[in-house]
TrEMBL record:
Coiled coil: none annotated. Residues 20-49 are annotated as: Disordered. It comes from the Eukaryota. Keywords: Signal. PANTHER family: REVERSE TRANSCRIPTASES. It comes from Pogonophryne albipinna. This is Reverse transcriptase domain-containing protein.
Length: 441
């Protein structure tokens, strides 16, 4: 399975290297007006008479340490139309909270992915009068960065922090120009438990009601991204020039499975691995290869006709990492145990895909490509570092590692990319058969 996953990720990376299609003439309006005049009333509505409202308390100065660190937005709502528009287009939001040496100034760093923009805020907040035990903060200095261009942040606001659950942070950010936001965050490492966050949505809504928010259309982060607009995705891909394979290669990918492919895949799968839910290890398949090959061929063909594999092909189990706290969600590692016949089909598709990827994947990509070696890229990097620059332009080397890259793939995007590379409708159907709704890896 790892080989097939790697090949699919390489195809997604190839999209990043695709050249713009100059035959397309689309007009992109990236302008977003952050300066609409808005006569906003900062007075909170009366809190509803409920248990949640009774326990809703602002965080005291003595507990300020609780909000320091890195946070991820999991639920938010605004009381203003412009705020609704922002939240609806938000893909991700991360906040860093740092206390300055004077113990009175809070550094608020917010990094957002909004539609096709990266928007960051760097705001110094000051506490109100020292005799006020509550944590009411006021922005005193700030910068806003849009796609790498830094400018002033001129909005005024009142910021209140509220007591909430462990590893949680709740903020009411009351701005002059864009209305009021209720923002619920989770500590880094606690923001990807989707089921737990969904269970908290009712609590978030009740808190919003207590604070006078209309919560009919909240922004809810599901651990991956905001809902994808298919029209935007199609428009983005239409503007790229995709390399494609030859019709002969497409025919090779789409051809019916062969008994020889099944037998070769059985021989190539590593022995000594744990079996899947059916209990049959690869050694059983290798011993009975002649008898099992025709049976597997019929099963694979029937599965393609039906559009689904048997439900017993895989099971997800959760393991506690050695030496980790069993009360922390991040201490558990979900893995999927796959039946060997599932792995056999994946191996066949991976071998077929490897035969055409050199036509699609740029020569710059050396990792996970047969016949290519990473020392070529290392040598190129050294040449760049040691050679004098032709222009007096600053240069930078960036190393990126995509955390759980395959788990974060947006599946509609993946299958659309496979079609754009002309990989063949039947071959794409095989891939969809293996990944109808992935749960773990």
């Amino acid at each position: 399975m790892k080989v097939l996953k790697g090949a699919l990720l390489l195809l997604l990376l190839a999209v990043a290297n695709a050249k713009p299609d100059h035959h397309q003439h689309h007009h992109h309006d990236h302008h977003h007006d952050h300066n609409h005049d808005h006569d906003h009333n900062h007075t909170d509505q009366k809190a509803a008479d409920s248990d949640h409202c009774q326990v809703l308390k602002m965080l005291s100065r003595d507990d300020l340490q609780q909000i320091l660190g890195d946070w991820f937005l999991v639920w938010s709502v605004s009381d203003h139309q412009q705020g609704h528009d922002v939240l609806r287009n938000l893909s991700s939001s991360r906040v860093e909270m740092r206390l300055e040496e004077d113990n009175q100034t809070l550094m608020f760093i917010e990094r957002n992915r909004l539609s096709d923009k990266c928007i960051n805020y760097y705001i110094n907040m000051s506490m109100e009068l020292l005799h006020n035990p509550k944590q009411t903060m006021h922005p005193i200095e700030g910068k806003m960065e849009v796609d790498g261009v830094l400018g002033p942040y001129n909005d005024t606001a009142i910021v209140n922090f509220y007591e909430t659950c462990p590893n949680c942070m709740m903020i009411v950010f009351n701005t002059t120009s864009m209305g009021k936001f209720l923002l619920n965050y989770r500590k880094e490492g606690h923001h990807q438990d989707v089921d737990h966050m969904k269970a908290d949505h009712d609590t978030h809504r009740k808190m919003a009601e207590c604070l006078g928010f209309d919560h009919d259309q909240p922004y809810i982060y599901n651990g991956v991204a905001a809902p994808v607009d298919n029209a935007d995705r199609t428009k983005f891909l239409d503007d790229l020039e995709f390399p494609s394979i030859t019709p002969a290669q497409e025919g090779e990918l789409d051809q019916p499975l062969k008994p020889s492919e099944i037998a070769d895949s059985i021989r190539l799968i590593q022995s000594g691995k744990a079996p899947g839910p059916d209990g049959y290890p690869i050694e059983f398949y290798k011993t009975c290869i002649d008898k099992l090959t025709p049976l597997l061929l019929r099963m694979f063909e029937d599965s393609l006709d039906r559009g689904t594999l048997p439900l017993t092909e895989a099971v997800v189990i959760v393991l506690l990492k050695p030496g980790k706290d069993n009360s922390e969600c991040s201490s558990y590692r979900p893995i999927s145990l796959l039946n060997v016949d599932y792995k056999i089909l994946a191996k066949i598709l991976a071998i077929r895909l490897e035969s055409v990827t050199p036509n699609i994947i740029s020569l710059d990509q050396t990792g996970f490509m047969k016949g290519r070696y990473s020392f070529s890229n290392i040598r190129r990097l050294l040449n760049i570092l040691l050679s004098p620059a032709s222009k007096e332009t600053p240069e930078v080397v960036v190393s990126l590692d995509a955390q759980k890259a395959f788990d974060r793939v947006e599946w509609g995007f993946l299958f659309e990319v496979l079609k754009r590379f002309s990989l063949g409708s039947k071959f794409v159907s095989w891939i969809a058969l293996l990944y109808p709704s992935p749960k773990a890896s």
